[in-house]
């Protein structure tokens, strides 16, 4: 059950609360479903993946399948499947709802009389292993179907993988329909030159478009069906390293190699982009290892890449001002993520520990009533006779008697009633029916965008997955004392 949140509480964390002992290299909260933010998945340096429960601060699942560090983790829309990407050039899809019987798994007998050493294999939880030609930096599910995967490789390649029957694998590139080789159009102007390589990519929250960053500072909008570039916008003069959306898909944040973060607004109808703010550490000019929005998209987070510090910068998205700098231990920051509903940030240090940043909420007894005073000792209080009366009874009776003698005229119109001025045309007047050429063009673009979004939706919903909450419950990898006794005997 989700706890009620105080709408007047501070919406960004202030200090570190706890540290989870592990060997993590990347972290991600589950962002959707009725239990959003209840689980934290972390990829470890030894190739394992751990799923933590944020309420109990304990590990509920350990997945073993990679042989090199796990650089990225991603959740499906209903948290049933987990996608992990590693430097061993593989991406694995895990089914978190299946728990193998520990009594049927191989084990190692205990070596002392007090403890038992048990090793269970989680290979049966693996749904699919996708192999690539280069190490995988990040892989994500399609927002509507977990059988469609978008992977970003460390060799500056973006690959779209469709695991359904009749699907395939395609390498995305900067190609526009009808465009010639070496020619491209940026912001309405044709530019000749060598096409840039794709460095990172992400789905729009609705799943109708793919947004990819290039080494030349361009942000590409790609159609998943035709795999052609729909639009280009120049964001920076340097390469784009990371990009991510907010929960509603109205804003996008980019991290580039010029050590600056940029936010852009996204038109939900046409997908058009417009620059909003630029964030930067003007003093130290440090790079950024992780970027994210808060759950309500009011704040922007950037994990700084200091060599001797563990800092997280928080800016206000609307004003662009720096709100808070979270200063942690001396270990550098590797990755961080913001909780989808609460002011909680999880950051990873180079030592592998996960630091949880939260807000401190002291008891404010003065908020119960205005004029409330805290007393250090008991004081005898004398109550007045009319102190807690809402209204004096004699005044209330006198007012009721006066209102009974008032005559109300319901037939004649009142001058206080608002009327429509005669010179303002109605909705059927010819002035409202006239459309300019610019309005017609905008309407045509909007209809085309709606048509493409509907086509992508039908494509994604074809052969759907079983990632639903009906009959699904994440089981725990825990053994009872009876099972441990049976295994050790």
Primary descriptors:
Methylamine Dehydrogenase, Chain H, 4 helices, WD40_repeat_dom_sf, 30 strands, four-stranded antiparallel sheet, mainly beta, repeat, RBBP5/Swd1, 489 residues
Give the arrangement of secondary structure elements.
Elements: E1 15-20, E2 24-29, E3 39-44, E4 48-53, E5 58-64, E6 70-75, E7 81-86, E8 90-95, E9 126-131, E10 136-141, E11 148-153, E12 157-162, E13 169-172, E14 183-186, E15 189-192, E16 198-203, E17 210-214, E18 218-222, E19 229-234, E20 240-245, E21 251-256, E22 261-266, E23 273-279, E24 288-293, E25 299-304, E26 311-316, E27 322-327, E28 333-338, E29 345-349, E30 354-358, H1 393-404, H2 430-433, H3 437-461, H4 481-488
Antiparallel strand pairs: 1-30, 2-3, 3-4, 4-5, 6-7, 7-8, 8-9, 10-11, 11-12, 12-13, 14-15, 16-17, 17-18, 18-19, 20-21, 21-22, 22-23, 24-25, 25-26, 26-27, 28-29, 29-30
Question: What does this entry look like structurally?
Answer:
Keywords: Nucleus, Repeat, WD repeat. It is found in: Nucleus. This protein is mainly beta. It has a domain at 17-105 and 123-151 and 462-488: Methylamine Dehydrogenase, Chain H. It contains four helices and 30 strands. The longest helix has 25 residues, at 437-461.
Q: Helix amount, in percent?
A: 10-25%
Q: Over all CA atoms, what is the radius of gyration?
A: 29 Å
Measure the end-to-end span: 40 Å
Q: In the CATH hierarchy, what is the superfamily of the domain at 17-105 and 123-151 and 462-488?
A: YVTN repeat-like/Quinoprotein amine dehydrogenase
Biggest pleated-sheet summary: 4 strands, antiparallel
CATH architecture annotation name of the domain at 17-105 and 123-151 and 462-488: 7 Propeller
| Helical segment count | 4
Oligomeric description of these chains: single chain
Number of strands: 30
Strand order of the largest sheet: 1-30-29-28
- Portion of residues in beta strands equals 35-45%
Subcellular location: Nucleus
Keywords: Nucleus, Repeat, WD repeat
InterPro entries: RBBP5/Swd1 (IPR037850), WD40/YVTN_repeat-like_dom_sf (IPR015943), WD40_repeat_CS (IPR019775), WD40_repeat_dom_sf (IPR036322), WD40_rpt (IPR001680)
WD repeats: 37-62, 63-97
